[in-house]
Specification:
two-stranded antiparallel sheet
Length: 290
Amino acid sequence: MTDKISTPIKTKEIIEKYGFYFKKNFGQNFLIDQNVLKNIVLAARITKDDFVIEIGPGIGSLTQFLCDSAKSVCAIEIDKNLIPILGDTLGGYSNIKVINEDVLKLDLNGLIAEEGEGKKAKLAANLPYYITTPIIMELLEKHADIESMTVMVQKEVADRMQALPGTKDYGALSVAVQFYCDTHIDFIVPPSCFMPKPNVDSAVITLTLRQNRVSVKDEALMFRIIKCAFGQRRKTLLNGIYNLGGFNLSKEDITGVLEECGLDPKVRGESLSISQFAELSDIFGKILKI
């Protein structure tokens, strides 16, 4: 088994050896607590049958633990300066492939088909915080062939992902994530577990892709309505759709749709469940002939 690098001393040694500088624009905070890394692998339920994708491996701290537990691992790293470091820290493993790419520009399903031997992948990652939401939504909306995602994110983002209707954290991200996934916050991670220390608490959350989702005829239309609902949070759903929807409908038309769904025209988007957004979308689709 390869010596682990996830301690403050060894992480500092590697950084100094390669003259590496942390880049704020890449959101680089490396984990230096081995218990946290072990618990991420446990939360992700990685087994020797699994193909695992990691986004943003950094110097390979989590990658080492993933390689110990999985059949094979593919680590996607955008920073070219980290590639030679990963070659060093992961050199003792034969079940790792490192790709120097932007995950938002990568054909992930093509990669899974090529490397996954016919199985869906599991994703485990300490995600760059500046781009957490775009990465997760890209994977969900494009139906990446992934069965679960166990990711480190800012605690406030994890709270939003699993927030319920009517709560202060409930928003477009909550609806989108819960439409596709069952959510579970596994544990909280303090700033002291990272180098450099972030300014916020973090959380590991597991998103398990749903086998059966709420039925809706047009996902794109539903998410367009959801963005309207939360785009002007203090306004009513009626005004949000009228101001932001671009549907070329009068307020009277929109009121009629809301009432057909059994909704008060004064309702706010934060009060609606996923099934109510789906029903609303289907009725709008009939009116707009989409």
